[in-house]
Amino acid sequence: MFPGKKMVSAGPGCSSVAYGASEEIGPFRLNRTGSSLYLNKYSWNRVANILFLESPAGVGFSYTNTSSDLKNSGDGRTAQDALIFLVRWMSRFPKYKHREFYIAGESYAGHYVPQLAKKIHDYNKASSHPIINLKGFMVGNAVTDNYYDNIGTVTFWWSHSMISDRSYRSIMDHCDFSGERTSEKCDEAVNYAINHEFGDIDQYSIYTPSCMALPNSSTIRSPRFKNSLVRRRVAGYDPCTENYAEKYYNRPDVQKAMHANSTGIPYKWTACSDVIIKYWNDSQASMLPTYKELIEAGLRIWVFSGDTDAVVPVTATRFSLNHLNLTVKTPWYPWYSGGQVGGWTEVYEGLTFATVRGAGHEVPLFQPMRAFLLFRAFLGGKQLPSS
Fold it and tell me: Where in the cell is it found (predicted)?
């Protein structure tokens, strides 16, 4: 019996169908014209049943009958709605009840995933007959803690020669990394670094060329990630795939085949929702207290980082996790995939951290074989191979 797994992705306000299913871990990828599909050799459904959830309402084909809901989204509501969905889904498809259940996601799902895990954990404790057999979760390049994420990001920019010493010192001197307040000098320093020193690179994958997107492309990311609206190219993959997703999922025949958009939403399907992004009004400053609680609960927790992402970089994640002060079980070592170093990993009491060498923000897009090996090891509760 395969375990169950739920995938949430990107955001806040971006679609796991656009990214997780169509670019990364789903069974199919989209071709350039958005007219057909081809098989993904490293699809994660080879080892698990996968449920992709477009969340919150207003993202992708997920909808609400109350338009004001779109301007009232946030962490708490998203987690509660996702829990309600899962309980109802399990009731509708009872054969999946009690199977091992895992949650995974990337980017702002660094909030979604542990928050939903906590909701499920609390729901199970309060229920005499829990139906969601939650075993663990994994997150990649995950937004975790405002202070450590921000200072770790600036450190990555400087250490990878994306910004000057002068800009680095100015940002460090003038910015409140907790994000609780802003200053004109901080804004000036950050804007100068991004607009005058970065150059035309893809912050989501700093070593790969960008997609030459059309001017009218609707591609967008969260305001936190607003400075990179283009995609990337590396051997064997296309950097413009999210543009193809918007072509494909707006086709009436595709929507009919998917049993999607049966209510006729009054707007085009997009990879990310401008409205959700703009009006997001509830975002926890730190997920570290939630991590501590879920580690104590005994869940299997893995955190991984593609090491060429400058948006939620590996330094940000390491700074955040170091603040948990966890006991090391297996010291830092290189792990291998296909005879090559796939990344580096360290195993703590209650949590495993791994980097993925040569991967950007969406790890399975850039390094699909390494990501698949990582996921398989996570499901099996095994350490990553040391040779």
Answer: Secreted
Q: Which of 15, 121, 167, 361 is catalytic?
A: 361
High-pLDDT (> 70) share of the chain, %: 89
Of the residues 9, 107, 170, 210, only one is catalytic, namely 107
Quick check: is 129 catalytic?
A: no
**What are 17-26's pLDDT values in tens digits?**
999 999 999 9
Q: What is the pTM of this model?
A: 0.90
Q: What angle do CA 79, 85, 88 make, to 5 degrees?
A: 140
Helices (H), 179-329: 184-192, 241-249, 252-258, 274-279, 288-296, 314-322
Please return the burial class of 253, using the count of CB atoms within 10 Å of its CB with bins 0-12, 13-18 and 19+.
exposed
What percent of the chain stands above pLDDT 90?
A: 71
* 323 has catalytic annotation: no
Annotated catalytic residue within 43, 309, 320, 337: 309
pLDDT tens string 68-110: 888 888 999 999 999 999 999 999 999 999 899 999 999 999 9
Q: Which residues contact 374 (CB under 8 A, 6 or more apart)?
A: 302, 304, 342, 354, 356, 363, 384
